[in-house]
Amino acid sequence: MKTLKFLFFGLFLFLSTSANAQIGVNVNINIPVWGPADTHDAHFYYIPDIQVYYDVPNAVFIYPYKERWIRCKRLPAHYSHFDLHSGCKVILPYRGHSPYDYFHTHKSKYPKGYIVKGQKPYKSKGNNGHHYGEGKHESKHGHHGKHGKGH
């Protein structure tokens, strides 16, 4: 009986350790090469100069388009003037799914030209950066939040 208890305890310990290891590996897997270096468990960035969000775990931008919020892997061409590598990214302490519900607060708290002191880009060994060239509006999930419709 002691051997059986020991076996179950060992199995439980192994499975819980494996689950924790898997979670630890996935935390920063989608950090873009242009993201801030101090991105540990960020879920969203707000990019003040273009008033766009970036969903880190899902690796998509969230931007306003025709009274809705669109989720897309790439930004459309009208954002191509913005340099994601050198532009400011604010790490939001938000954990929901719709950061744009607080768009007016973010827009006011982090206006265009906002600077995060000492922000350095995240350095990655692979090229998991995202381009901001022409992209299709891939998602039907975006919608306008209760606090705004974009611009």
Explain this structure.
21% of the residues lie in helices and 15% in strands. It has 151 residues and is an alpha+beta fold. Strands 4-3-2-1-5 form a 5-stranded antiparallel beta sheet, with no helix packed on it. Strand 2 and strand 3 (60-65) form a beta hairpin. The radius of gyration is 19 Å and the shape is globular. Keywords: Signal. Residues 1-21 form the signal peptide. Residues 125-151 are annotated as: Disordered. Residues 138-151 have a biased composition (Basic residues).
Q: Return the string of H and E elements.
A: HEEEEEH
Mean pLDDT: 74
The termini sit apart by 68 Å
Q: How many separate domains?
A: 1
Number of helices: 2
Order of strands across the widest beta sheet? 4-3-2-1-5
Q: Assign the structural class, choosing from mainly alpha, mainly beta, alpha/beta, alpha+beta, or little secondary structure.
A: alpha+beta
Helix content: 10-25%
Q: How many strands, what sense, and barrel or not for the largest sheet?
A: 5 strands, antiparallel
Principal-axes geometry comes out as globular
Strand percentage lies at 5-15%
Question: Which spans of ≥5 residues are poorly predicted at pLDDT below 50?
Answer: 18-26, 124-151
Rg over C-alpha atoms, rounded to the nearest angstrom: 19 Å
Number of strands: 5
